[in-house]
Amino acid sequence: MKNVIEKTIDELTTNKKTKKVYRSRLNQFFNTIGIEDINNYPNMKRDFVKDLNTYAESLKDRPQTTQQASNSVVKQFFIWNKIKVDSVDFKRIVKKYRLTNSVGTTDDRIPNHKELKEILMHADLKKQVLVNFLKDTGLRIEEAVLIQWDDIDMELRKINVRHEVAKGGYPRFTFFTEETKELLKQWNPKRFDFFKSKIDTSHFVRKHLEKQGFTWDKLGKDKTIYKDGKEFTAEDFNKYDNSVFPYSQQNAETMFRNLLENAGAPYNEKDTNPRLKYPRYKIHLHCIRKFFFLNFQCSGANKSFIDFIGGHQSQLDQRYIYFKDRWQQLKQDYDNYSSCLSVNPSDKKIIEINERLQEKDNEIDDMHRRLLLQEEIKKKEIELLEQRLNKKIEESLKKGKLNVSPEMNDKKREKIMALIQTLMD
Asked: Which of 218, 310, 398, 423 could form a disulfide with 138 if both were Cys (CB 3.0 to 4.6 A apart)?
């Protein structure tokens, strides 16, 4: 039977990720005020206002937006369970802890093109493909780790962001560049190797896989993996895990922090804001998404288009849904402006040169085919003229109009054919 927390969050949202956040904050609230019998809390004779203040006080070292969101969830819990607290008391808490129009207290830093390129110089393939994927698509990290290969059209460079993946449950689509396309092609066959390496490095992964029927003959690069007694191959892995990034959001964030540490100063600089209980890096994965928005906006691309593929439904009116039927136009717009995302302009020039060379090759092949066709046509015309000439000579001989020897006819015929060939050339 569901407890009062689960019943409440079922009323508040249907999104699994949002439920997880609400559940965490409500559990935090009850742990802070020391309540174990959660189901009876709405009927207890307590000073509920004091409980709210105690919880708000416990959050004072957290970012201001976190304080506001946490208190908002608790307020909704009170409303849905008909816990009587005067609205004036809620307003007093908001005023006391400055929760009106709160803004983020973190000092985020969006890297420029040169800085992002320098960071990526320290990245292996799995980090390169992740960062470039986020940079090109504008996806949130929590959305990116849920993308499946079936969601990607490599030829069109298009991603279908399903409602189960998209924040807020609003499906959309986005695109990526040729540069990221090449990285994805390289990464796909390497995913199985990454999976095998996790068995070596993580005790948690080993325990989790053993519960699912996995075994292995040894640890190390050359190990053989078995599933339910049968050898587990790369093809089996693609069926087992079809995700583009076979790891969690937390793993992705850890990988990126390690990348920043490898890049060194100033990229590994941390935010020292005194209101942050747990200082974090100024550059983090969400800054890559901000890189996407900033550069598209500076390039002059249509704002509604950017908001749609970036999943900013809050900044779109209800008519945004019409974009779904115009993906070809949006892809054309994306391709027109996506050069603003490239951190490797030299690579972009090489791609453009290769494309132009391919166009020239196609033109040469087309001209060659035309010349061959013209040669065939000339041969056919000469054959027809020769047939007609022979026929005329034979008719003239029969009528006695050509009073010459056969040898002379052959010479005359050769001269006429030479003249015809000259005219044809």
From this structure: 310
pLDDT digits (tens, 9 = 90+) for 298-357: 888 888 888 888 888 766 655 545 666 778 888 988 998 988 898 875 555 545 555 666
How close are the terminal C-alpha atoms of the chain, in Å?
94
**Predicted confidence (pLDDT) at residue 126 exceeds the cutoff of 80:** yes
Residues 335 and 364 in one domain: no
Are residues 86 and 167 located together in one domain of the fold?
Answer: no
Coil vs helix vs strand at 81: coil
In terms of domains, do 326 and 315 share one?
Answer: yes
pLDDT of residue 276: 62
Number of domains in the chain: 3
Neighbours of 282 (CB within 10 A): 20
Residues 6+ apart with CB under 8 A from 217: 223, 224, 226
Q: For residues 214 and 324, which has the higher predicted lDDT (pLDDT)?
A: 214
Strand partners, 230: 227
Q: Does residue 101 form part of some domain?
A: no
pTM, entire model: 0.67
Inter-CA distances, 17 with 22, 95, 167, Å: 9, 30, 8
Residue range of the domain that includes 366: 346-424
Omega of the bond prior to 345 within 30 degrees of 0, cis? no
341, 177 Cβ separation under 8 angstroms:
yes
Q: Are residues 39 and 87 in the same domain?
A: yes
Higher pLDDT, residue 321 or 359? 359
Domain match, 45 and 181 both: no
Q: Residue 257: CB partners within 8 Å, gap ≥ 6? A: 281, 284
Q: Are residues 338 and 350 in the same domain?
A: no
- Within-domain flag for 134: yes
Same-domain pairing of 58 and 205: no
